[in-house]
């Protein structure tokens, strides 16, 4: 970008900032443009502007402070700047910067103008207090706080050494107190701290006190050690996952759920989580903003629940609204705090916030108005305050009109923000209750619902509320007219309308009016049933397709019924063609048929076992009230069909369930339960695919935590399902399932977003009708394997070569550290026919090397591999020595998810899970990687379970239970042909009892010698045939 363009961009950015000064993304872009301009003044202005409106991270504060230090001579102004910077987020770099500033200024003052009064700025005592305060701010960081403490200790010892012997009492006391205070705090270097105290005690305390002092210090230290040990696993996980927000969420949740929460540790965990989320949000991670809001809300609630002092809570609230000014939930908590903590007998400072002022401040950000879920809690908090003022008798004559005006303003904002408004009608319900309870103005309540019905024309909840308001006013004729008008309309839950109308006529109508109502309802039911039948037919097809789609992602290997040949599948082999089927030659490994001609088949093929049609017979139920039991859900759905299973899952802030029927035909009826009520709470019922997204083409580094972080901002995630990689290690897609279809629809905005340059992510609602255009079910057939490449071959070389055969989707080439080719690559085409055509490039000369081209399907290649590997061992043996057995898996473990976790510690080739055993066999790239996993000292935690590892085949059979189900054909991960295959043909008779079909051969003699065929043909027979005699 040239100077003129950059200046124009800066001018436009300043215009946008003047209109939206609380938008963090605009400030981040403003700072970036200022850096490009190479103008220090402009950059400093951009940094200052950001810190004036929002909480800023250290990447903003430190450059600003350094710029100020170069031009500002007033130390007081700089100290104020540090104070403001440290109030935004917990930042060890800023605190360290502050300590360096204090130490340097103290040294300068001692030389130039030595302070005489202990309270003077930068006197030794003042500096000691200031340094202690800075170190205390960082002490809650359990793994990095020692950086600050070590700096303080070095400074304190320098002061001690420079102090005359007669005046050392105070410095010695300061050092002793800082050591003892530090030993009380859990941190990662407690041993070093204790050793430092021991050295200090031996050098500066009386020898006779040494033992007693260390015994007392050991008791203090013991409690801190236990406290840190309880958090060490989470701390190690943060280091290992590079401060993942998902790990922080787990860490903070554990601290909040503790039986006796430690506010020191809890607040430190939240402060670090908030600082990391803010950093990622400022750097452009859209999902981090949602995490930042969530961390703040949980932190504020934790402080309130654990009775933090008012100053601490107020300080956290002020920082929170500065950090996430677009969060209505945070503003609502601030207003409730101000109401709760207000004392009429206390004279507060003039600048103390008020509820009304805080409410206006929240709206002035122009951020809350962008989201219905932020508008509603903000306006409910303000309305609740005004209502309680009126109820307490402290409201003035304008109090009621103010309350009504607030609610009407909120309703209008909600409708402007979302065409469908608030589906739960929270503000409308509140306003009608205010009219009825506080003002005795039921006609106004009716008017509220009348206006709302014109906006939400298909919401049964609106119309039911409207008619109930009319009935309470004895406006029965008008209520009847409303029921008659809407009975045949296309409503989201017409049954509720019909039931309400019939109940109304039973209470208030004549016989004629009741029968007219029932006739109209019957007619409406016929119309609705006809429409639903068509929808159900379509839904059944979609659900059936969804089953196939989901099974492609994580279906377990199932046994396939065998033909008369008796061949059996081996583990991890799900699509083998049936051996011995008509129209194909006999395979070499099949037993030779007896002489005497073909025999008629007498055995009937067994039909494949019927699979449990789980997904096609299951509905998803959300918004379930707390405490609901499986029996209650079974009772709700029992009239739809026979219920096979009900599974209730407790998510962090929601209760959901899946209801599985024995028959798929029960699903359409089950969908009519949407909007029904359980325990006076409305539930949501929908097909799973409508809330499920198919996500593909994301970076290879993406894992479960990153996907949950990316998609979590759009709604509550029920599950993320990953495909097994045991057949194809390059599969890159997953299914993200939300608890509501609306959340999935909002997340579609991530479609085509580039998480890494040149790779736009694919995000689709998992509609079975679009399965073919986005599934990788045939990816094996569309991908070729290219070997024998020159080390100078590049990806463009391969693209140019293979695009002549058809559209190339992706080229993946293995490279050395220097970027040169390792000699092989994978090329994926858009169409299967193009991959087949590309096989013609086999033996093509590229960069003076003849290349080999085959299909990349690992199972196809396995059939054509040599019997023995390069190591000289059989493939079964070679596979075993690089495989390990993994135990203590959580129930329902996904193979793809387990592989993600293990790949962070070793090079994993593939994984196979045995769900019933809660075990898995993990095949590594080589025996060294297997050894790395077996000898690992730190535990690997998966879910909430600590995994254990052992050598495959060593401790399984001898243990109390088998290591895995006994394989039918000799073990896991064994290629189909990985057995000794004797030669058969001229002069060699095939040995029965060998090969994979040995179990179907005639048993041999007892001496172990192979039996001979009854009428084998030798070379003499062959010569006779050729000679025609």
Automatic annotation (TrEMBL):
> Which residue intervals define the domain RRM in the entry?
617-690, 691-768, 782-858
- Gene Ontology molecular function terms on file: RNA binding
Q: What's the superkingdom here?
A: Eukaryota
Record InterPro entries: Nucleotide-bd_a/b_plait_sf, Prp24_RRM1, RBD_domain_sf, RRM_dom, SLIRP/GR-RBP-like, TPR-like_helical_dom_sf
Bias (Basic and acidic residues) ranges: 595-616, 768-778, 1017-1029
Provide a GO biological process annotation. RNA splicing
Compartments where found: Nucleus
Ordered alphabetically, the record's keywords are: mRNA processing, mRNA splicing, Nucleus, Repeat, RNA-binding
Give positions of region: Disordered.
Answer: 560-617, 759-778, 949-1029
Give the signal peptide as a residue range, or say none if absent. Answer: none
User: What does it do?
Assistant: Functions as a recycling factor of the spliceosome, a machinery that forms on each precursor-messenger RNA (pre-mRNA) and catalyzes the removal of introns. Chaperones the re-annealing of U4 and U6 snRNAs (small nuclear RNAs) released from previous rounds of splicing, an initial step in reforming the U4/U6-U5 tri-snRNP (small nuclear ribonucleoprotein) that can reassemble into another spliceosome complex; this step involves binding U6 and facilitating the unwinding of the U6 internal stem loop, followed by base-pairing of U6 to U4.
Could you identify this protein by its name? U4/U6 snRNA-associated-splicing factor PRP24
Q: Which organism is it from?
A: Plicaturopsis crispa FD-325 SS-3
């Amino acid at each position: 970008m040239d100077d003129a363009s950059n200046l124009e961009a800066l001018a436009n950015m300043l215009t946008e900032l003047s209109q939206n000064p609380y938008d963090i993304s605009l400030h981040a872009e403003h700072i970036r443009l200022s850096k490009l301009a190479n103008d220090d003044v402009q950059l400093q202005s951009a940094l200052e502007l950001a810190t004036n409106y929002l909480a800023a991270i250290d990447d903003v504060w430190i450059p600003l402070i350094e710029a100020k230090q170069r031009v500002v001579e007033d130390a007081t102004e700089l100290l104020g700047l540090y104070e403001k910077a440290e109030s935004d987020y917990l930042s060890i770099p800023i605190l360290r910067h502050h300590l360096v500033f204090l130490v340097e200024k103290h040294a300068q003052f001692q030389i130039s103008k030595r302070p005489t009064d202990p309270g003077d700025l930068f006197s030794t005592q003042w500096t000691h207090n200031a340094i202690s305060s800075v170190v205390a701010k960082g002490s809650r960081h359990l793994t990095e706080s020692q950086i600050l403490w070590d700096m303080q200790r070095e400074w304190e010892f320098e002061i001690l050494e420079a102090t005359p012997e007669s005046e050392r009492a105070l410095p010695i006391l300061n050092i002793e107190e800082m050591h003892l205070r530090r030993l009380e705090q859990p941190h990662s270097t407690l041993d070093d701290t204790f050793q430092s105290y021991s050295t200090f005690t031996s050098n500066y305390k009386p020898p006779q006190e040494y033992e007693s002092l260390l015994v007392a210090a050991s008791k203090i230290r013991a409690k801190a050690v236990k406290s840190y040990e309880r958090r060490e696993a989470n701390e190690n996980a943060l280091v290992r996952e590079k401060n993942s927000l998902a790990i922080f969420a787990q860490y903070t949740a554990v601290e909040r759920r503790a039986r006796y929460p430690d506010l020191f540790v809890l607040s430190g965990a939240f402060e670090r989580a908030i600082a990391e989320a803010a950093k990622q949000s400022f750097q452009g991670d859209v999902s981090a903003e949602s995490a930042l809001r969530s961390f703040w809300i949980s932190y504020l609630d934790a402080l309130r629940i654990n009775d933090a002092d008012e100053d601490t809570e107020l300080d956290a609230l002020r920082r929170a609204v500065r950090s996430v000014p677009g969060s209505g939930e945070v503003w609502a908590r601030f207003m409730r705090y101000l109401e709760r903590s207000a004392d009429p007998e206390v004279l507060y400072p003039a600048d103390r916030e008020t509820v009304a002022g805080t409410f206006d401040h929240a709206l002035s950000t122009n951020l809350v108005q962008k989201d219905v879920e932020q508008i509603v809690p903000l306006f409910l908090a303000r309305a609740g305050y005004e209502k309680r003022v009126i109820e307490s008798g402290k409201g003035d004559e304008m109090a009621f009109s103010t309350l009504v005006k607030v609610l009407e303003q909120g309703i209008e904002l909600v409708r402007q923000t979302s065409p469908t408004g608030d589906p739960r009608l929270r503000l409308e319900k509140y306003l009608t209750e205010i009219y009825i309870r506080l003002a005795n103005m039921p006609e106004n309540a009716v008017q509220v619902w009348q206006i709302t019905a014109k906006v939400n024309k298909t919401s049964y909840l609106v119309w039911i509320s409207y008619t109930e308001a009319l009935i309470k006013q004895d406006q029965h004729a008008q209520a009847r007219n409303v029921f008659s008008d809407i009975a045949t309309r296309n409503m989201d839950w017409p049954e509720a309308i019909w039931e309400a109308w019939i109940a109304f006529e039973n209470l208030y109508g004549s016989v004629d009016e009741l029968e007219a109502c029932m006739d109209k309802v019957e007619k409406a039911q016929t119309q609705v049933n006809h429409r639903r039948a068509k929808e159900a037919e379509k839904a059944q097809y979609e659900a059936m397709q969804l089953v196939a789609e989901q099974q492609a992602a994580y279906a377990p290997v199932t046994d396939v019924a065998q033909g008369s040949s008796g061949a059996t599948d081996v583990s991890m082999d799900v699509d083998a063609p049936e051996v011995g089927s008509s129209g194909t030659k006999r395979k070499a490994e099949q037993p030779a048929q007896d002489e005497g001609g073909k025999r008629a088949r007498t055995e009937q093929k067994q039909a494949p076992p019927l699979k449990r049609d789980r997904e096609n017979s299951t509905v998803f139920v959300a918004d379930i009230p707390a405490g609901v039991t499986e029996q209650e859900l079974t009772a709700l759905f029992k009239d739809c069909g026979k219920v096979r299973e009900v599974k209730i899952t407790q998510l962090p802030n929601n209760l959901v369930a899946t209801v599985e029927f024995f028959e798929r035909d029960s699903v359409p009826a089950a969908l009519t339960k949407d909007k029904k009520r359980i325990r006076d709470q409305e539930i949501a019922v929908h097909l799973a695919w409508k809330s499920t997204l198919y996500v593909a083409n994301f970076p290879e580094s993406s894992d479960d935590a990153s996907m949950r972080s990316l998609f979590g901002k759009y709604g509550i995630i029920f599950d993320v399902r990953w495909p097994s990689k045991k057949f194809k290690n390059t599969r890159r897609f997953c299914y993200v399932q939300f608890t509501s279809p609306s959340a999935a629809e909002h997340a579609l905005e991530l479609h085509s977003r580039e998480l890494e340059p040149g790779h736009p992510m694919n995000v689709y609602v998992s509609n079975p009708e679009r399965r073919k255009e986005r599934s990788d079910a045939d990816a094996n057939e569309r991908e070729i394997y290219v070997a024998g490449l020159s080390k100078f071959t590049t990806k463009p070389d391969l693209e140019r070569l293979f695009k002549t055969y058809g559209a190339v989707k992706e080229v993946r080439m293995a490279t050395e550290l220097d970027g040169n080719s390792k000699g092989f690559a994978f090329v994926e085409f858009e169409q299967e026919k193009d991959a087949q055509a590309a096989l013609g490039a086999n033996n093509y000369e590229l960069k003076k090397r003849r290349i080999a081209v085959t299909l990349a399907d690992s199972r196809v290649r396995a059939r054509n591999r040599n019997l023995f590997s390069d190591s000289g061992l059989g493939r079964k043996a070679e596979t075993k020595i690089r495989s390990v057995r993994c135990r203590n898996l959580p129930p329902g473990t996904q193979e793809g998810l387990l592989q993600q976790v293990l790949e962070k510690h070793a090079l994993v080739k593939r994984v196979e899970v045995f769900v019933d055993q809660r075990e898995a066999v993990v095949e590594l790239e080589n025996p060294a990687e297997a050894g790395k996993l077996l000898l690992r000292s730190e535990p690997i935690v998966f879910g909430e379970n600590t995994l254990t590892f052992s050598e495959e085949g060593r401790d399984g059979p001898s243990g109390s239970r088998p290591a895995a189900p006994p394989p039918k054909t000799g073990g896991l991960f064994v290629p189909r042909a990985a057995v000794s295959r004797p030669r058969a043909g001229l002069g060699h008779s095939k040995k029965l009892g060998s090969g994979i079909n040995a179990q179907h051969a005639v048993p041999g003699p007892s001496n172990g010698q192979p039996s001979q065929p009854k009428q084998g043909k030798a070379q003499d027979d062959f010569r006779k045939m050729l000679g025609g005699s």
